[in-house]
Amino acid sequence: MPVPFQRVYLQSAGSFLPGDPVDNERMDDYIAPLNRLSQRIKRRILAENGIRARHYAIDAEGRTTFTNAQLAAGAIRDCLARGGADLTQVSMLASGSSGGDTLMPGFANMIQGELAAPPMETLSVHGICAAGVGAIQAAAQGIELGAHRSALAVAAEMPSRLFKRSRFAARGYETDFDSHFLRWMLSDGAGALLLSDGAALAGDKGLKLRLKWVHQRAFSGDYPVCMQLGLTEDRERGHLDFGSWAEAEAAGALSLRQDIRLLPHLFDIGIHEYAQLVKDGWVDPARVDHFLCHYSSEKFIPVVEDLMAKAGLAIPRERWYSNLAWRGNTGAASILVMLAEFLQTRTLQPGEQIFCYVPESGRFMAAYMLLEVEAADAPPATVAAPQAKAAPAEDEFIAPPHDPGAAPDGLRDLLTELASVWHDYRSQVWRTPLVRKIRERRFAVPDYLNWMAQWVPQVREGSLWMREGAASLTGDYQTLAALIDVHAGEEQNDFQILFDDYRKAGGPVNDIAQLHRNPGGEALNAYLHGLAATPNPIGLLGAIYVIEGTGQRIVPALLPLLKAALKLPPDVFRFLEYHGHNDEHHLSRWLMAVEMVMAIDPAGDAPRKIVETARHTASLYLMQFQHITQG
Fold first, then answer.
1. Which CATH fold would you assign to the domain 3-228+257-375?
2. 190 to each of 64, 444, 496, 568, how far by Cα in Å?
3. CB of 95 within 8 A of CB of 156?
4. Which three-class secondary structure string do you get for 427-482?
5. pLDDT: is 358 or 553 the higher one?
6. To which H or E segment does residue 614 belong?
7. Measured between alpha carbons, how far is 595 from 162 in angstroms, rounded to an integer?
8. Are 575 and 494 a contacting pair, CB within 8 Å?
9. Cα–Cα nearest to 311, from 358, 353, 267
């Protein structure tokens, strides 16, 4: 749930970008390519990310020209000057960063020292992109609680020191793609906000800008590490586990890396959180006048835009604002740098809303803020729990989380409920002992065989309960039978493919009937067979949604990890490969079936049955995952 505020205002915002802008042609003077591969990666990434200029706090020889604390101090000075304030009026300093200049002490304390600031409360938020929002929230809470009249939130990043060519000498100037990638993405800079309990917004006389709420949610228990510094490429050892810093550097443990294969999941969860904020009444897309979205590359603009559109919650592109192209990606500082420049270049009107979204790829977080412009004489705000949005109009729609196309009209409520069921289920699956073992690279061939052996009996029953369900359809619903029979026909031999994979990987059991039966899988099949035997078992569509979604969204994410961990030939993963490629088409067919059901009985209780069955199926499928490591 978001943290609401009623007496926190943004008094001013400032930034500090070191040195002159560095265009793409001059990047080699600072971040020199390592080898021939590096040049190709550079060209590809710069063509995609849309960044034309950025700033570095190092010179062409790799010498530091500003420390990270000095960047932060520069942003604070700019912020205070724009707000007509000074440090004596500030009693709290909260900082956000992926790292200061020292491992200890905290970054906020180093900034305070750099400023020679008077005694005050300090807080250092350590993270990646969302750390800046964490600092803002901490400062705002101090004001809301009455502990402070004014507080500073600052974020600063200085990754250039990690990217200079000399850092890679210990490895012979050879490194993996994940660490190559970020060298051409990140740059240096700092941003600061001065928050207070009611001062006017500098530059817009007669106006004040209220921070309405901040929402942060981490999904670190659901996914592997995506962006990290301090671990080796295989994530097996940390930099402190080596005998010396030199050994850690030679092993690549001091290279900043990002696993770009995981990034689609980051936007998936981020847009789901946004949809939930809308559903719960915290934000109304129609009321958002300015959308400040932090993205690392312009390549991700259509990704975010498409996901928002599929959720029926799009914010028109002309309302988006970003300065990525000419300020670069400054990590945790980006949203503060963006806000500062936005406020300095835009004329705002009372009632306008500014919505901020910051995804963090470290171990997946999503952060949001909503600000609203008020007239200077507006009465003090009162905060009440927002009301959930009224039932949507018939022409609004939301697509299921796995369907690539637009959803038909009139399905918003059903698909929103299913998306909620899905994301809760997905989160729990990623935290099961089985998936954790895969994520942590502790998964071995016996584990794979154990999993496949328990999965075969469950998959074997799939086409059977589908056909039973089709046979139970009567009246107008009989038109669905042909569609379900097609689906069942495609899957009737899936269990044999899975069993063949098991045998090729070294599975010792020759007779399928002798395989270990998973309690969760047995419970799921019993439930679905029982439901299929009832008249017009429309709820089975909810089961198909969860099962096919698992094949399309979860299995493809696990497959690269399995292939990396297991020294097995490619043809032992045929079943997993097949579902990753084909379940998208299965879900499109599922959507057609839902359309038919709604057309047959638009006022009936089919949506309730589908959601209820999806929820039960998710619970039982999760039980199957839980029991695999116990078999």
1. Peroxisomal Thiolase; Chain A, domain 1 (3.40.47)
2. 16, 45, 58, 48
3. yes
4. HHHCCCHHHHHHHCCCCCHHHHHHHHHHHHHHHHHHHHHHHHHHHCCCHHHHHHHH
5. 358
6. helix 606-628
7. 53
8. yes
9. 267
* E-strand stretches of 229-352: 257-258, 288-293, 320-321
Q: Which tokens hold the place of 423? A: 């994301």
- Predicted local confidence at residue 271, as pLDDT: 84
CA-to-CA distance for 118 and 490, rounded, in angstroms? 72
Quickly state the pLDDT bin for 618 (edges 50, 70, 90).
very high
- pLDDT at site 239: 94
* 324: phi then psi, degrees, rounded to nearest 5: -55, -40
3-class DSSP state of 243: coil
pLDDT-based confidence at 377, cuts 50/70/90? confident
DSSP state of 244: S
Give per-residue pLDDT as tens, 98-122. 999 999 999 999 999 999 999 999 9
Report the 10 Å Cβ neighbour count for 482.
9
Report the DSSP beta bridge partners of residue 151: 195
Burial level of 311, CB count in 10 A (0-12/13-18/19+)?
buried
Residue 536 corresponds to which tokens in the numbers above? Answer: 């017009």
Count the alpha carbons within 13 Å of 204 in the hemisphere toward its beta carbon.
Answer: 23
- Return the pLDDT at 399: 32
Q: What integer pLDDT is reported at residue 391 of this predicted model? A: 35
Are 498 and 509 in contact by the 8 Å Cβ rule? The answer is no
- For 412, half-sphere exposure in the C-beta direction (CA atoms, 13 angstrom radius) is 18
pLDDT at 581: 58
Q: What backbone phi and psi angles, to 5 degrees, belong to 382?
A: -120, 140
Answer for the pair 160, 57: CB distance below 8 angstroms, yes or no.
yes
* Residue ranges of domains in the chain: 3-228+257-375, 412-628
Q: Which pair of tokens denotes residue 172? A: 């012979």
In 356-440, alpha helices (H): 412-429, 433-439
CA distance 505 to 446: 9
Top CATH class of 412-628 equals mainly alpha
Cα angle 218, 323, 285 (rounded to 5 degrees) comes to: 55
Spacing of C-alpha 377 from chain mean position: 39
Q: How many CB atoms lie within 10 A of CB 318?
A: 7
Q: What are 307's two structure tokens?
A: 């996901």
pLDDT digits (tens, 9 = 90+) for 254-269: 999 998 888 878 888 8
Q: What pLDDT, on the 0 to 100 scale, is given for residue 131? A: 98
Cα separation of 311 and 114, whole Å? 46
- Tokens of residue 265, six digits: 């999941």
What is the distance between the alpha carbons of residues 375 and 240, in angstroms, rounded to a whole number?
54
What pLDDT, on the 0 to 100 scale, is given for residue 628? 92
* Mean pLDDT estimate for the chain: 88
If you average pLDDT over residues 215-220, what whole number do you get? 95
Angle between helices 540-549 and 412-429 (to 10 degrees): 50
CA distance 96 to 433: 33
Helical axes 412-429 vs 606-628, angle rounded to 10° = 10
Would you state the pLDDT for residue 181? 84
Cα–Cα dist 153/124, whole Å: 10
Name the 3-class secondary structure at 618: helix
What local confidence, expressed as pLDDT, does residue 423 receive?
Answer: 83
Fold agreement (3-228+257-375, 412-628):
no
Q: Tokens 């250039």 sit at which residue?
A: 160
Phi, psi of 516 (to 5 degrees): -65, 130
User: Is pLDDT at 603 greater than 90 in this prediction?
Assistant: no
